[in-house]
Amino acid sequence: MKLQSTGIFQAVFNSDLRALAAIGVMGGMLVGCGASQSDGSGDGIGDGGANNGPGFEVPGAGDAARLPPPGGGGASGTVGGPGIDQKNCGFETVPLERLPAELLLVLDRSTSMITEMGAGGQTNWTILTKSVDSTIKSTQAGVLWGLKTFPTTTGCSVRSGVEHDVLINNYTPISGTIMRARPGNSNGTPTTLAMTSATAYLKGHATANPKYILLATDGEPTCFNGNASREATDIPAAVASVEAAAKAGFHTFVVGIAPQRQSGRALDTLNKMAVAGAEPRMGDTKFFSVTSEAELTAALGAIAGQIGSCSFNLSKMPPSPDDVAVDIDGKRIAQSPVNGWQYNATKTAIVLSGALCDDAKAGKLKSVKITFGCPGVVIPVL
Asked: From CA 13, how far away is CA 291, in angstroms rounded?
């Protein structure tokens, strides 16, 4: 989704009053460091320059906002210091697109999913698949869903890759696969292998979109040394695999769907995995604990809403990543993971956090301007 154009940034040269205008975009950004179409002979403020040429100012911004003149200047041919290429530091309008999140469902199809019952006498598998089906159907236009099941066939088997890539509007193929994936009578719970495979897939899925895993399970991890029985628990390795996914940049939401998982070793394991996944719930129960279809549908909907798009793609790397300003509705926003903005891990997207993220999801933000600047140049609020 692209946001609409708004606002004007204007700079006036003192020497001949030539106007340089760059359009600020709602969901776009201004990139400015004084590049121009001149012959490069200006006496700018770059390293080694004579520093005797006229600069240009943002009207009404005062001396703090003086910007280097066109032409670059300086013996190194750079603007704003070494390493900043003048050609990549000029005014231009760059489209900024909201990035929908990718959510890979890692779905437990162990035998206990069909032998244990939830509310209303339904199997855990029935409760889970009904809720997953309705959630994916209602959110597929805003969340890119994918599917990984475990075990792949029987026992402790887990193949590499996924059943369905994360894609927009992916409900129909995922729903069809889940309907055919009813567990058999000799399936273990190879959580470690499933999470390792899911992480490898997301690492190889080269997109700028934020990526998450939704681990839906009703049982403790098994398949230690390839043994599918409940006695062969694999808890430490499973927790470590969830933690490894988070360290790779893929947070995991953990959903536990069986009523008997409310206490004992299973509760402790699910809590540990939720904390390791970096998306724990508040309170004593850290995972999304659900015992009915209604509760599970609400939990899945909350997760899908929580990862709704607060990320905006940058079509190019900033020339100076530390010299970037974000203004929302005329107010300068701090770079902060609490209630501000930050880069994603690869500096290919801007991500809003806290109340700003909530406002973005609710469509309350009217004007977002992102300005790329250069070292030593104060960026005025536009």
From this structure: 68
